[in-house]
C-alpha cells in the first residue's frame, strides 16, 4: 500500500545506521491512520520550518489540571487524524524500572488509544503517550490507572519528580534517590495534579554529582548526592591505574581545584579543597570512593531557556543528612519545600520561576523568607563569591 | 470551616470566573489569594480555600485550561 503523505524530508532521517524515529512512526502508521497524518504534518513542519501545532488549549481528564498537554493541528482539514493529538503524561517509576509485562501493557494501551506512539521518557521524566484525543482521554487514563499508574504533572504545578537509578544500579549513589523520589511524589499528589503555583516547579534527585537526571541545570530544586568526609583511597589500585593510563594528565591535571598530587607513588588529596566534582572517582573507580558521611546538597533555581533564559542551580544547602531525615519521613525537607512554596506564592509573579524570583528580590530577602541562615557556601558556582556581604569578623570565622 | 462559609467561597470563586469569562483568565493561586483576603475575618487559611477549589474541580463546576500557564474556566467554554 502506498504512503498517504509523501515525506521526502523525513525519509532523509531514516538514512544511516541509527535508530530513526521516522521508521518507528511509519511502523506505527501501518496500524494507525492517525499516525499516518502525523507523519504528513511533521513533514510539513520540516518543510516550512515552523511547528504546525497550536500549543495549549483544553485537554485533560476529570478533576486533574495536569498530566495532559494539549496539541491541536493548525491544518485539521488536511490532517484530520491529528486534529487533536494530545500528549498524556504518565508518572514514571522511580529510576525508570519496569518489568517487560508492564511495558507491553503500557504499549498496548498506547496502541488502543493513541496510534501506538510512546516517548520513554519525556524531558521531565514521564512516560508520554502521543496522540490521545479528548474523547478517549478518560478511557486511556482509566486503563493506565488499572495498571497502577497515575498521570504526571503539567501546567503551573509541581512537575513529576524524577530521579536517577540510584543505589539500585549505581555504586556512586550517595543516598537512596528512589526512596525519596517515591515518597515526595506520594506526598505532593495535589500539587502535582492541581495547578496552584505561579509556574512550573521541578524536583530532581541525583545520587552523585555526575547528575544523570540533569538536576543542576533543569530543576528548581536539585538534590545531588555528596559526602562530608574524605575521599577513600586504595593506594594499591592507584598504582594499577598508573600502569594503565596517564593519571597525572587525565585525573590530577583535570581536577578543578588541583587538590590532588603524588608524593612518590602515593596519591594525596587535600579534601578541604575538594569540590566533590566526582571526576577523579569516575576515572579511577576502583581506587577512589566517596566518603562515609553521605548525604546530599540542595541547589535552587535552575531552569531551561523559556521566558527569561536558562539558569543553573545555586547552592542552597551544602550538606543535608537525608539518611537521618528519612527516619522521620523527610519532615525537615518537606518543611523547607513548604517554606519555599509559601514565599514563591506570596511574592512570585505569573510565570516566574523560583530562581528568577530570587534574582529579583535578592538572596538575603529569600533566605529570610524561608528561614535559612546565610552561609558562605551559598554560591552560584564553586569558587565564586557568595551573594551575601559578610562583615569582616564573620568572614574571619 | 462551616458548610455555609464553604458555599460562600465556592459561589464567590465560580461567580468571579463567570463574571470575567472571556475577559480575564484566573490562575488558581490568584483566586486563592483573593479568597484568603476576602474571608480573612472567617479565619480561612490557604489550605482551606485550596480544599474548596479541589471540590469545585472534582464536581466539574470549573475546569482547568492552559495557555502558557494554568487557569480556571467554565466547563461550557471547553
Q: What would the keywords be for this entry?
A:
heterodimer, A: 397 residues, alpha+beta, Alpha-Beta Plaits, Sulfite Reductase Hemoprotein, domain 1, five-stranded mixed sheet, four-stranded antiparallel sheet, 16 helices, 15 strands, 36% helix, 16% strand, globular, B: 78 residues, mainly alpha, Arc Repressor Mutant, subunit A, two-stranded antiparallel sheet, 2 strands
Structure description:
The complex is a heterodimer of chains A (397) and B (78). Chain A has helices spanning 8-12, 21-29, 33-48, 100-114, 134-146, 177-187, 189-193, 215-218, 235-244, 247-252, 279-283, 322-326, 331-347, 354-361, 363-370, 392-396; strands at 53-55, 68-69, 71-73, 86-90, 117-120, 127-132, 162-163, 203-206, 221-227, 232-233, 260-263, 266-269, 288-289, 294-300, 314-320. With 397 residues, chain A is an alpha+beta fold. In chain A, the strands form five sheets. In chain A, strands 7-8-9-14-15 form a five-stranded mixed beta sheet. Chain A has a four-stranded antiparallel beta sheet with strand order 2-4-6-5. In chain A, strands 1-3 form a two-stranded antiparallel ribbon. In chain A, strand 8 (203-206), helix 8 and strand 9 form a beta-alpha-beta unit. Chain A folds into three domains: 8-146, Alpha-Beta Plaits (2-Layer Sandwich), CATH 3.30.70; 162-228 and 295-396, Sulfite Reductase Hemoprotein, domain 1, CATH 3.30.413.10; 232-289, Alpha-Beta Plaits (2-Layer Sandwich), CATH 3.30.70.20. Chain B has helices at 3-19, 28-38, 46-58; strands at residues 63-66, 70-73. Chain B is mainly alpha-helical. Chain B has a single domain, classed as Orthogonal Bundle (Arc Repressor Mutant, subunit A). The radius of gyration of chain B is 12 Å and the shape is globular. Helix content of chain B is 53%, strand content 10%. In chain B, helix 1 (3-19) crosses helix 3 (46-58) and helix 2 (28-38) packs across helix 3. Chain B is built from three helices and two strands, in the order αααββ. The model of chain B has no long low-confidence stretch (mean pLDDT 89). In chain B, strands 1-2 form a two-stranded antiparallel sheet. Classes of the chains: A alpha+beta (397), B mainly alpha (78). Chain A binds chain B through residues 56-58, 60, 62-66, 70, 154-157, 190, 194-199, 345, 350-351, and chain B through 27-29, 32-33, 46, 50, 53-54, 57-58, 60, 63-70, 73, 77-78.
